[in-house]
Amino acid sequence: MNRFRRHVGVHVEKARAQAALQRAERLPLEAIGREGGAVALADRFGEQALAHELGHVLGLGHETRGCSLMNPVATPEGPALCPQAKPWQWRCRMLTSDDVTGAVALYGGTARPPSGARDCNLYAGIRAPTGVEVRATSETHGYQISFRRPAPIPVPAFLSSRRAEPESFVTAVTSGRCATDPHAFGRLAWNVKPGEPQLERVRLEPGTYCVAVWAVDSFTRPSPQPARLWIRIV
Ligand SMILES: [Zn+2]
Known about the structure:
Blueprint: H1 14-24, E1 27-28, H2 35-41, H3 45-58, E2 73-75, E3 78-79, E4 89-91, H4 97-107, E5 119-121, E6 130-136, E7 142-148, H5 157-160, E8 168-175, E9 188-189, E10 197-203, E11 207-216, E12 227-233
Antiparallel strand pairs: 1-2, 2-3, 4-5, 6-7, 7-10, 8-9, 8-11, 11-12
Helix pairs in contact: 1-2
Zinc ion is lined by residues 7, 29-30, 52, 56, 62, 72.
């Protein structure tokens, strides 16, 4: 919060703004109103940029030391110095305590404590696969995992235009405990249609294992939970 440094307008070159957006998805918020800003306004920068500018209208200056809507630079996932939302989320609670403290310092009054989620999902996540089964094969230590591919999920065009891949899945077979991070394992492309069972072959020594299977949408967002199955190989 910097309530005494009145903002007078920082302008960035159109080319620089566009390059920043394409390179790292970071954009000086004052690009609003320029052509580069128009590109940004097409997606999740829009609300952030408008709320930031309204902060200036109220008399708030830039904050460069900590998380604030008044950070001069933002990504689609939030002001640059704030904890970032997931790529498939937007900042549905714009104001930080710093912004509110600044406005109260200027205008007086008291503020209600923040309520509601800070980050909201932009679209429904893909469901986990269903019907996980493990069967022994004729090979020594050979097993076949099967699970049903879920219905596809439409990803909003403004997201999928940046990172469109075929839907995929992640299978993690871990000893003793269930895997919780799908990003720690490789993604594989489905070779079946939605609703059909996918088959995977694995080799397993005797032991107790957790089989966890995530579906991953075309924006590489995994299902919120995996399908899980505990198995005991003797
Ligand atoms: Zn600003």
